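Journal club prep, shared notes

We agreed each person brings one worked example of a sequence with its structure written out as tokens. Mine is TLC domain-containing protein. I'm keeping it raw so we can talk through how to read the token line rather than staring at a rendered picture. Sequence first:
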Amino acid sequence: MLDPLGPPPLWLQEAVKPWAEWLDLPSMPAHVHEIILAFVFYQVVHSVLSPWLSPILCPKSYPKLNPRTRLNWDIHVVSLVQSVLINVLALWVMFTDEERKSMNVGERVYGYTGACGLIQALAAGYFIYDLIVSTLYIKMFGVGMLFHAISALWVFSLGFRPFLNFYASNFILYELSSPFLNIHWFFDKVNMTGSKAQWYNGMLLLFTFFSCRLVWGTWQSACVYYDMWVALQQKWTASASSLLDPVDITASVFKLENGSLCLDETCARANAEISKYAKFTAGGVPTWLVVTYVSSNIVLNSLNYYWFSKMIETVMKRFRAPPAPEEKKKKVQDVQKFTEEVVLEAAAKLEQEEGTLFLGDEADEKIASAVGAAVADKLRRRNVEQRS
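Then the structure, token by token:
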């Protein structure tokens, strides 16, 4: 699929091209306008839209926030807008980009479509914003958030080689849990801690986190490992075939029949676009790049499993408490209340573990969640009173 927004002005492409070639990112000039627009859009949301709209939507909460929490609120608004927008666009690309669907193993590693480039550009624009915020407020958010912004921007920028352009939409879907995590944070700040709405949102948060980050994320990691292994084998085979001829794996990567079944010019252009940057593919994928991607992916997946294990640990603590004899006679309403508390505590733990690093919660707000320490104690005391 061609880039729905089209190419940038020629003067902008020419201005960026020398830098892109020096960085070995040949497809970046075709998307530089989207990177700039995304960055400007998120900065406007942070500096203009959120400060203007938040007091209107939350007149009892936003104006009373201290400067640090208000800054954190605006950042959460940007994160919410970005995660919703990028997920919707990624799903749209995955379902409508026919050229992307037709890619073989080699094309999934080296191939390119403008629509996938759009996803990478929007993600890069957000991570530039994230990098600037993390740098300006490093004392507030810590080094961890800064390193996350740097690594995320670096990984998505390398997609402009192009490298793993196919997987841009797949891995963006990790963020499907982020809207619910942000909403969870907002419920705290508008005095809806422990409400039904927060409980339902907590259920969606836990479900999407497990489904998208653990199940989907692990499966996609296995797929990308396989594709990169095949790409390395193609390079090694071509390198060993002749000591005199230069390595060129282009013919074994891209299908020759691309565009042969098209009935219109747009389809033919979209198919031809897959191998648009084939000349950069000739030497194969560098081994260091594969090692870097695998290492980064393992670290991120390990963090996801760690956060989920802390959440499960929180849940199990509630169920390990020895039940009183009267609990056998509990009514359905009491069981439901207990379940709600468990879900809220689990969501709170997830917010504490993940939100502090990636969403910028201050040190003094680490446990500002669905059930803060005081609220959790209150809930436990209420259970004890009901059992006695």
